[in-house]
Amino acid sequence: MTLLPPPLSLYVHMPWCVRKCPYCDFNSHGVRGTPEYAAYVDALLADLDADLRDFGAALHGRTVETVFFGGGTPSLFSPELVGRFLDGARERLRFADDAEVTLETNPGTVEHGRFDGYLAAGVNRISFGVQSFDDDKLRRLGRIHSSSDAASAVREAQDAGIGNINIDLMYALPEQDLTGALDDVARAVALAPTHISHYQLTLEPNTAFAANPPPLPDDDAAWAIQEACEALLADAGYGQYEVSAYARPGRRCAHNLNYWRFGDYLGIGAGAHGKISDAQGVRRRWKTRLPAAYLASAGQPVRIGGDSTVAATDLPFEYMLNALRLIDGVPAADFQERTGLPREAIASSLAECVARGWLLDDPALLKTTPLGQRFLNDVIEVFMA
Fold first, then answer.
1. Is the overall model pTM greater than 0.90, yes or no?
2. Is 228 exposed, middle or buried (0-12, 13-18, 19+ CB in 10 A)?
3. Residue 296 CA to its chain's centroid (Å)
């Protein structure tokens, strides 16, 4: 199996947050005392050094197209520490001149002036975890900010000169009706971000909400909310390009597009996941989850929580799990380029999906129909080994 090297991204996980939200199943840990933020940046760079040694030839000469600081709450880290990591990463890897560098931000953890610092450090895209502009819903979601905090933070980032801003919104919130969901979207649009992520609240295992479920809209109500909000976003000039992503022209999230197109990415930080294409095939690696254990590893092999090569029989499912989320689809030739498998490996699954009206009957394009988008989980299951 010969793989062409796809675009390369860098994901950096910052694991601390002020308080863990009841719906959150990410590797995030509420702050106790004062975390060792500076030592964590040292550990990140040691982790990066070790991954560069381990992956060797698979990374040689490749250019980092995007960087994404996720969490947790990356904005708990000062601009100086974010800049120190980025400077160190640039010393070790070649960055594209126009590399997209995103920092996830909680509106309740930034003060005026910090955005200037993040911009000077090299961050050129901010993603705000707003979730709702309804203060009652924010309280029920366990958020630490108010709707006015969120609006102020977005404006401050814009005033600082950051021109590429995403707002995360959730819908189908506890006891939310259509009017409330549309109001959230309208208030986000009024702030004129370049990108809006709009996704449904789901009850994930091992979360507080899963243990004690709040009253949520039923499936039909959630679908009605989704359709109405899609229409409102379209009218406001935000084109849907992925299941839950909407952007102004030219402002699609390059980092997430690399995920959905089955590109490569290094995963640095506690619990971070990465994917690298090498001579053995598609290789996935993830890091130990607990921040204390990660800090103690200092770039040593024990920092690795797991490392495996994806079996050829699982590659069709993994590829489609990402690619079919894109509204415009992907060129059919990309399947072979990203997985190393011939089209024949998915021929019968493609035929079944076309027959059910879930995929377009186009040999040059892998693209869901509107029906396929509605039943996307069922479509993807067809490609399971």
1. yes
2. middle
3. 27
